[in-house]
Amino acid sequence: MTPSPTGPRRAPTRGKRAFAATWWGQAWVAALEDSTLDAGRLSRGRTYARKGLVGATIVAPGQVKAPVQGSQPRPYRSSVHLPVLTDAQWDTLFDTIAARAGHLAALLDSEMPAELVDDARQAGVPLLPRPTELDPECSCPDWGYPCKHAAALCYAIAATIDADPFVLFALRGRTREEVFAELRARRTTTRNSPPPPAGVPAAAAYARWAERAPGLPEFPELPGPAALAVALPVAPPPESGLTAADLERLMADAAARAARLLAGDTTSLHLTVRQDAARIAASTPGPQWSRDLIRGTGSQPAEFARLTRAWQHGGPVGVTVAEQPSTPAPATMAAARTALAEALTEMTDAPVPLKAWRNRLTLAEAGIQLRLGPDARWYPYTQDGGEWWPAGPADADPVAALAAVWRQAGV
Description:
Layout: E1 4-6, H1 23-34, H2 39-50, E2 57-60, E3 63-68, E4 76-81, H3 87-99, H4 101-108, H5 114-122, E5 135-138, H6 148-163, H7 166-172, H8 176-192, H9 202-211, H10 225-228, H11 244-262, H12 273-282, H13 287-297, H14 301-323, H15 330-347, E6 355-357, E7 360-363, E8 368-372, E9 378-384, E10 387-390, H16 398-409
């Protein structure tokens, strides 16, 4: 998809909501202002936008970016990211638009019908941004989230969204042309499709099945670990490069996972390739297996070692926390930061700077970092050789997680 540039635009000069006149433009501004507790940086961002310090903006799938002039001669590179919709979500959105003729008529007039947004939201498709979805980024040194430059960009783009609601579609992943092309294709398919065959009432179909449904077999007794270690009946072909011990280990691992699934443990049911490789490596398969796993995942040795340690401390969630920064609710991060600042005051004689970025709280001088996981638990990390390494199990209390890694680091 080709990014769409828009020229610099001086924003309206009065009021917070003056940046947008339409309800959907105001919803964009509201999402920005609800995403942070930092009213000061939002105020500075409005001032920057009103002064026309936001340069030409580029709208692309998942992001809008622009240079923003700050206190330095060279403008800062600011951007705001928004998750794109999946193909399944787009199919649902297209069905929602096609379900009502008024939806399509409003879009043709460059209007965003509120009923369409409500229908899409009820179907699980967030067309307008939610506060937790806006993810600002800037090349400036300000650690604010968002900084004043990214806030200025958000305010400035609101006027463009006002004039063309299809900017929201573009941010979610599809251009105006792609949206209308898909809607035309669906309308043509609907006209040419034969009528669906007559069905059978669900209650009657279930009643007929229940009359002749077979009984369920007895649940088998789960085998013990010794029973899972089955020897191969024949050796693998020499040209395969596999050894009998390797295949027997894989067989035992697969059988053990199947047994855990039968017992209701679904922890390893939906692992990614890297998560599964870290799981296998954490079971100490030996140096040759580790080398093969590193090569198979395309990882660097140190990187894979960190993932393996992350699995040992936190399983699949630990690997996710190690690989993917997230954007939690600002109020959650603010509460944790306050609690840690109070605890550090009692633990040290001198103040310890605490920096926040996305889901991470970093004590750079102490070489300690806490990361908030999707399970609402805090994962401790320590710095070694300029890299952050998982340092222990997670804790729901950020202060408890800090205290544990603090003692471990011997600060």
